[in-house]
Amino acid sequence: MFLQTDDQTIEDLRIFGKRDGQGLFDLYNHSHTRGAEAVLKEMFTKPLSDQQEINRRSDIIKSFAGMNICFPFEGALFDMAEKYLIAADEQKKQGTQHSVLSEKEISNGVTALITLVQQIKSFINSKEVIAMESWSKEREAIASFLLDPAFEPVLREQQKGKVSYAAVTAFDLLFRLRERNKIEQLLAQIYQLDVYLSVAKVARERKFVFPKALEKGKSILRLKGVYHPELAKPVSNDFSMDASNNVVFLTGANMAGKSTFLRSVSTAIYVAHIGFPVAAEEMEFSVMDGMYTTINLPDNLGIGASHFYAEVLRVKKVAAELEAGKSIFVLFDELFRGTNVKDAHEGTVAITKAFAGRTNSLFIISSHIVEAGDELSMKKNIAFHYLPTRMNGNTPLYTYTLERGITDDRHGMIIIRNEGILEILEKGKKDLQGERLGTH
Fold first, then answer.
1. CA distances (Å), 197 to each of 59, 137, 339, 439, in order?
2. pLDDT digits (tens, 9 = 90+) for 165-217
3. What are phi and psi for residue 333, nearest 5 degrees?
4. At a CB cut-off of 8 Å and minimum separation 6, what does 124 contact?
5. CB atoms within 10 A of CB 262
6. How far apart are CA 185 and CA 285, in angstroms?
7. Fold of the 212-409 domain
8. For strand 247-252 and strand 382-387, is the pairing parallel, antiparallel, or unpaired?
9. DSSP conformation letters of 145-195
10. Residue limits of the DNA mismatch repair proteins mutS family domain (predicted)?
C-alpha cells in the first residue's frame, strides 16, 4: 500500500534535486552502491500507506542508527559484480556464444561475488545483528538463500590465493546461469541494507527523530520542534492537528515564513510515510491514503489555462479523492491567489468550510485574506495560526515562530518605501521630464 500523491506535490516539496540545487532525496542519499540509490529513489517516489510497514521500516533504521554499524562491503566489489552480471545480459541479447568480457573481468566478477556472499554471511551471523528483532525478516531471508546447497562451494572457497581457472569456470556457470535469480535476490537484500545503514547514519549525524505511525483515519498529527532540514539556521515550531481541528487557517505577511513553515510540516509528513527519520524533536501521525500540496502551482499554458483555473482543477482533484472516502493531507498555500479579492474571499471561505466537514482528513490553508477568518471562526474544527511580524520603527522583524490567532499584519507598503522604489520612480519621472524640456 502506497501513499497516493502526484508530480505537483513532489515538485512543491523539492523531493528530487534540479540543476539549481539538491533535493530531499540527496540529503538522505549516502548509499555506497548504485543498486541502493535506485532502491532509495523508489522509496521516495512511493511512500508507504500502511501503519505496520511504516513502523517496521522505521524500527529497522532506528536499530541500525543505535548500533552505529558501517556498511560492511567495499563499493568496488559491487562495480565488478554488476559489470559481470550485466555483461551476461548483453551476451544473451546479442545471441552470441562469445563473452563480451575478458577472462580477467570474468575472474574479477566471480571473485567479487564470492567475497560478497561470504561477507554477508559473516554480517548476518554477528551477535548484534542476530539480536536485532526488527531486521529478523530480512536476516532470515538472506540466511535461507545461503542454506541453499548451490551456495555451499561458494562459502567453502578459500580466497587466500587466486581462484583457479577451473573454479572460475564452475562458479561462472553457477552465478550467471544456474543460480542467477538467487544471486540477484541476494544483491537486492544487500542494496536494501545499504539504504537502511546510510539513512541510519543521516539520522545519527543530524539528530533526526523517528516518527510513530498511528492508525489511519484518526486525523492525528503532532509535531514538536519541526523545521525544514535544508535550512542552515532553522527556526523550529510545535504544531498539532486532530479531528477536532482538522483544518488550519494560516495567515502572515509576506516574508514572515509561511511557505517555509508549510514545507517543513508537509516534508515531515511525506518523509514519515517513507518510514524515515524527520527534522523534528518528536512526531506522531495518523497514516494517510494520500497527500496533495499546492505551493508553486504553474499556469498550464499548454491548455491555455490561467493560474486561477489551474487552482480550480487542483481543488476539484482533491474533492474527488475526498468523495472516494480517502483520508488525505491537503495543503494550499495562498488559495485562489489567481483571481480578484472578492472571488478569492468567497472561494476560500466556501472551500475551507467544506474541508472542515471531512474530519478523517487534514487540511492547511494559508491566505492573505484575513477577513475570511470572521466567517470561518463559526466552524469549531477550524484552528487559526499566524506567523507574526514585529516592527522596529519602520523595519519589519520576523520571528518565524507560529502563534495562535489571525494576524492583520500588512507591511507591504513599508517594505516598498524602505527599498526606495517610489523615490526611484519619481526621480526617473523628473529626469525624463527634464530631458523633454531640454529638447524644446
1. 12, 16, 49, 76
2. 899 999 999 998 899 999 999 999 999 999 999 999 999 999 999 999 999 99
3. -95, 115
4. 130, 139, 142, 143, 146
5. 23
6. 33
7. Rossmann fold (3.40.50)
8. parallel
9. HHTSGGGHHHHH---SSPPPHHHHHHHHHIIIIITHHHHHHHHHHHHHHHH
10. 245-433
Q: Which of 278, 181, 174 lies closest to 223 in space, CA to CA?
A: 278
User: Left (φ > 0), alpha (ψ -120 to 50) or beta: where does 232 sit?
Assistant: alpha
Distance spanning both ends of the chain, measured CA to CA: 78
Tell me what percent of the residues of the chain surpass a pLDDT of 70. 89
Q: Which three cell numbers stand for residue 255?
A: 516574508
Q: What are the tens digits of pLDDT across the range 374-404? A: 899 999 999 999 999 887 877 888 999 999 9
Q: 318 in helix, strand or coil?
A: helix
Q: What is the pLDDT of residue 68?
A: 86
pLDDT of residue 301: 46
Are 110 and 81 in contact by the 8 Å Cβ rule? The answer is: no
CB-based contact 225:237 (threshold 8 Å): yes
User: Grid cell 477568518 — which residue?
Assistant: 373
Nearest-angstrom CA–CA distance, 124 and 142 = 8
> Is the Cβ–Cβ distance between 65 and 208 less than 8 Å?
no
- For residue 175, count CB atoms less than 10 angstroms from its CB and return exposed for 0-12, middle for 13-18, buried for 19 or more: buried
Domain coordinates in residue numbering, the chain: 31-206, 212-409
Q: Which three cell numbers stand for residue 286?
A: 495518523
- The CATH code of domain 31-206 reads 1.10.1420.10
Predicted local confidence at residue 304, as pLDDT? 44
Q: Which helix (H) or strand (E) holds 64?
A: helix 51-67
Long-range contacts of 97-103 (CB under 8 A, 24+ apart): none
Task: In whole angstroms, give the CA distance from residue 223 to residue 211.
Answer: 9
Between the alpha carbon of residue 281 and those of residues 40, 223, 276, 401, the distances in Å are 24, 8, 14, 16
Stretches where the chain sits below pLDDT 70 are 88-99, 159-161, 298-305, 409-418, 427-440
Residue for grid cell 545519527: 204
Rounded Cα gap, residues 181 and 184, in angstroms? 5
b/e sequence 146-160, b meaning 16+ C-beta within 10 Å: beeeebeebeebeee
Least Cα distance to 391 among 280, 208, 253 occurs for 253
pTM to 2 decimals? 0.90
